[in-house]
Design brief:
alpha/beta; Quinone Oxidoreductase, Chain A, domain 1; 7-stranded mixed β-sheet; 6-stranded parallel β-sheet; 17 strands; about 25% helix; binds nicotinamide-adenine-dinucleotide; binds ligand AHE; binds zinc ion
Length: about 375
């Protein structure tokens, strides 16, 4: 069949709208009509050429929602007409990682996913007979896409596609980082670096678990008002603080008789390795945990004095907020539908596919939180 898609033909170039060929679903695969897709910073990261796994040409996008329109042989868990959210972190429930119960990082199709192909090693997308790569196993910047059945979460049918697509990455990553990775609880203190599409969801996750003090840190002063909408109690712009941001944040979080300071949990939502260091070092001596969410480019490395870890701080990372997609995503959709979490105010722009490059411009200028393309 033919489908309209935004294609990244080469790195660091605007996406081009094209009508491409899409083969139908093979064994264990499903064909999904994407109704809406968010634009995540990670799409931009890969398009920029900074992603060591980046492949071109490719159809990016990994934050979608849509309807199953066909299924391949052997598919049992979903059927035509089901509403689904694609999962860049699948959940096969049979690989050693899924069975370990220690991680959400299902390994059953990770190798082929990283090579931009389906589990049988081939791509379903092509143009003029030439292969186009899948991206993160999702390629939601295409009106129709093919996914393995283990990489879709079935959701309730009354959930609006143009809002719940955001649960396909940003919402789940931010809230999941608090609940699944940090396992934060009532009364804790948290510091969130970078109040974009991910960081605001970390803020609302901290509010959800009953954190006492929620500090947001962003170099864009406009993010103060944004943070306050989602539970932030204090805002810090590093540009106003001078050279010792760590000392400033430690001072702000001094509690109890010993007045040591430092947050119970800190989160990097910037992808900047210097910020990651600051985030670790302003976590509490003895028990502070710093969770890396941001994705850093090829060649970037994190560093700190080992003393920071010797004195009881822990560095952690999280992908998709530690969520097991087929199990957890339908529940997060329920939370949204029940009003327990907010999504609508964060979707600042709704665009047509033809205008998808404007979504990236809005991200770069800091004007948008999330842009959503509606097909
Ligand atoms: P975004 O562009 O919407 O937000 C980034 C925010 O960081 C902006 O508000 C920006 O002003 C702020 N910022 C930039 N430099 C800063 C600095 N030095 N100090 C403080 N704030 C600073 O991006 P996003 O969509 O929220 O994504 C954030 C990061 O998370 C990206 O690196 C993205 O690739 C990554 N990500 C990771 C996962 C995962 O599973 N681990 C999932 C989604 C996104
Ligand atoms: N390809 C990059 C890694 C990118 C990365 O870490 N991606 C996150 C999801 S970001 C969503 O917006 C992830 O899921 N990581 C786990 C995995 O298996 O990729 C690189 O550096 O090579
Ligand atoms: Zn993402």
């Amino acid at each position: 069949m033919k489908t309209k898609a935004a294609v990244a033909f080469e790195k660091a170039k605007p996406l081009q709208i094209a009508t491409v060929d899409l083969e139908g679903p093979k064994t264990g695969e499903v064909l999904v009509e994407i109704k809406a897709t968010g634009i995540c910073h990670t799409d931009d990261f890969t398009i920029s050429g900074a992603d060591p796994e980046g492949l071109f040409p490719a159809i990016m996008g990994h934050e979608g929602a849509g309807v199953v329109v066909d299924v391949g042989p052997g598919v049992t868990s979903v059927r035509k007409g089901d509403h689904v959210i694609p999962l860049y972190t699948p959940e096969c429930r049979t690989c050693p990682s899924c069975l370990s119960r220690k991680t959400n990082l299902c390994t059953s199709i990770r190798a082929t996913q990283g090579q931009g192909v389906m589990p049988d090693g081939s791509s379903r997308f092509s143009l003029d007979g030439k292969k186009i790569h899948h991206y993160m196993g999702c390629s939601t910047f295409s009106n129709f896409t093919v996914l393995p059945e283990i990489a879709v979460a079935k959701i309730r049918e009354d959930a609006p596609f143009d809002k719940v697509c955001y649960i396909g990455c940003g919402v789940t990553t931010g809230i999941g980082a608090v609940i699944n990775t940090a396992k934060a609880g009532p009364g804790c203190t948290g510091i969130v670096f970078g109040l974009g599409g991910i960081g605001l969801n970390v803020l609302q996750g901290l509010r959800l678990v009953g954190a006492d003090m929620i500090i947001g840190v962003d170099t864009n002063p406009a993010k103060k008002a944004w943070g306050e909408k989602f539970g932030m109690t204090h805002f810090v712009n590093p540009k106003d603080v001078g050279s010792d941001l760590v000392a400033h944040l430690v001072n702000m979080t001094k509690r109890g008789a010993d007045q040591i300071g430092g947050a119970d949990y800190t989160f990097d939502c910037t992808g900047n390795v210097e910020v990651m260091r600051t985030a670790l070092e302003c976590s509490h001596r003895g028990w502070g945990e710093s969770i890396i969410i941001g994705v850093a480019g090829a060649g970037q490395e994190i560093k700190t004095r080992p003393f920071q870890l010797v004195t009881g701080r822990t560095w952690k990372g999280t992908a998709f907020g530690g969520a097991r997609g087929r199990t957890d995503v339908p529940k997060i959709v329920e939370w949204y539908m029940d009003g327990k979490i907010q999504i609508d105010p964060m979707i600042t722009h709704t665009l047509s596919l033809a205008d998808i490059n404007k979504g990236f411009d809005l991200m770069h200028s800091g004007e948008s939180i999330r842009s959503v393309v509606v097909f």
